[in-house]
Amino acid sequence: MKLLAGKDVLVGVIDVASDVVRFRAAVSIEVADTRDFHWVATLLSARVKKLDASFKPRLQEVIRSDSPAQLVITPNKSL
Questions:
Q1: Are 79 and 23 in contact (CB under 8 A)?
Q2: pLDDT by residue (tens digit) across 48-66?
Q3: What whole-number distance in Å separates Cα of residue 41 and Cα of residue 31?
């Protein structure tokens, strides 16, 4: 996921959060800086909680300063 500004970020997080809840997925948040991870993790967690308050996704921080930011979701294989 390319980090965008404002409304585009929210729309991207909403789309990803719905897939995270639907597939009970773990998420690797690949960003250039730890501050970016915390910002994206907070947005994603809030949206996931709004969709399903009982589900707590596993979020993993991956720092990659040489690559564009992205979210990698790994579905729960037991579904």
A1: yes
A2: 999 999 999 999 999 998 8
A3: 11
d(CA 35, CA 45): 15
pTM above 0.85, yes or no: no
The yes-or-no verdict on residue 5 having pLDDT over 80 is: no
Q: What is the amino acid identity at position 1?
A: M
Residues 7-42 pLDDT 10s = 666 678 888 999 999 999 999 999 988 998 998 999
Helix axes 7-23, 34-51, angle to 10 degrees: 60
**Distant-in-sequence contacts of 60-64, Cβ < 8 A, 24+ apart:** 60/26, 60/27, 60/28, 60/29, 61/29, 61/31, 61/34, 61/37, 62/28, 62/29, 62/30, 62/31, 63/30, 63/31, 63/32, 63/33, 63/34, 63/37, 64/30, 64/31, 64/32
